[in-house]
Predict the structure of Platelet-derived growth factor receptor-like protein.
Amino acid sequence: MFDILFVMIFGLSGRVLTKDTDTKGRFSSPVLDVTEKQLIIERNQTLQLNCRGRWELHWVLPSGIPKVYHGTQIEETGCGKKNNQYCSRLTLSPALAQHTGSYRCRYRQKQRKQASVYVYVTDSQQPFVKVQSEIPDVVYMKEGEPLVFPCRVTNPDAKVSLVKESVSSFHFHRLVPDYTNIIWNSRQGFTIRSPTFFYIGLFSCETIVNGVKYSNKFLTHRQVNKILDVYLNSTGLVHTLQGQMLALNCTVTAEWNTRVSISWTYPQKANGSANIIRRISKSRTKILFYSVLTIPRLSKADRGLYKCHVASGPSKRETNTTVIVYDQPFIRLKHRDGPVVQASAGQKSFRLTPKLRAFPAPEVIWLKDGMVAAEQCSRYHVNGFSLVIRDVAEEDAGIYTILTGIQQYGLYQNLTLKLVVNVKPQIGEKTVSSQQPGTVQRGSRQALHCTSHGVPPPQIQWLWHPCPPKGLSPARLA
C-alpha cells in the first residue's frame, strides 16, 4: 500500500484566498489550494493538487512525467455557488523522483495567467532527478551566455559539489559556490555566470547519501559559429536533359567545433523529388560538411533555381545555381554576320565565330578549302567552337567550314562561310621609267607601265605635270 499525502485546503472561499479573489478581479489568475511555494513528498506517495478559476483550466507538468502515464489523473468539475467556476484536481500516484519539478495550472486561453508550485519527490536512492547512463550529457557553452549544469535534485537540502575532472589523470578540481559567478540552485543545478575556457572539459555534480556517492556527468562543448566558405560543385548554369540524373554538392568549410545546418530550396521541394545525403570530413584545422542533392530522373518541372542555405547560430550563408532542363539534344548553327566575313592582312588575330547553340556540347572541326585547318597552318587554332587566325595574311582567304556533331545522339550540322582578306594597295614600280627624265622625240608614241596589287583590286589614276621651262626648277615654278 502506498502512503497518501493529501495537499488540500478546504473552503477555497476562505481567508487564504481572499487576496486573489477580490470582487472586481475574482480569479483573474487561477488559484491553487496550497500557499507554499514548494512541497516535499516522499517517493511512492500520492500527490494531489486542486485548482480553481474563472475559465477553463489546463495543467503543465514537469518534463519527467510522460504524456501518457497511468498514474496521472485529472478531474474537471464545475464549482462555485452558481456553478460558474472551473475546478480541476490533479492526482499523481505513485509519485517518483523523476516527477520532481514545477506544476502549473493556467487558463487554457490565457496562458500567461497561471499558478504554480514546485514539488520535490525525495528518494534516498535517486538524489538527482535525472538518472544518467554511462555517457555524459553535453552542455553547450555559448559566448556571452551563462553555462548551466542541469543537475537538479529531489531533495532541496541535498549537499552537491561541482567537480572538474581530468580525462587523462585522476586529478580533479572541486568548485565551491560563491553566489557571484558560481551559483547553486536545487531546482536548476549549477550556473556559471561568466564561463571561461576553464569550463571546457568533463564536469560532474556529486552528492553523498547514506555513504553512497551519486553523480551526474557533463561534457562542455564550446560551440563556434565560424563559416569559412560555401560553394556548389557547379556555380554557373547547369544544362541537362529530361530523364537524366541531377547531382548538386554543397560544400561548407568551417572552423573546428562549428556545427552547421544545411538546407535546400528547389522547384519541386514540395513534392520531395530530391534525395539529400550528408557527410562530414575533418582535417587538423577545419571541418568540411557535405550535402548532396540528387534527383534520379529530371522532368521539365525540375528546372529553375536551386539554393543551398547554411546556418550556424547567428551566422548564415547561401549559394545557388540555375538548372536548365532540355527536352532532347540539339544543334542550332547559323551565320553571325552573314556568309562572307572580312579581315585585313597584318591584323594581329581574327576569330571566325558563327552562332552555335547545342546540348550536349558538340565536337567541332574546322576545314579550310576542304582540308583540316589546324593541320594546314600553325597560325590556326580552335578555341571553343571558334577558329582563331593569328597574324592574318593574304593566303588565309578562302572557304571555311565548321563541322559540328554529337555522335552519341547522331546529330550533325555544318556551316560554310567565305573569308575575304583585304590587302592595302601597293605600287610595284615607284616610277614608270628611269629616275631622271628621258628625252623622246616630239610626236612619238610612248607606253608607260604601272604595276599595283591589293584586295580588293586598286583603282589606278594617272596624273600629268608639264615640264618646267629651261633654267627653272619645279620648286621655283611653284
About this structure: Residues 1-24, 431-435, 474-478 have pLDDT under 50 and may be disordered. The CA atoms of residues 99 and 149 lie 19 Å apart. Helices lie at 373-376, 474-477. The longest strand covers residues 411-427.
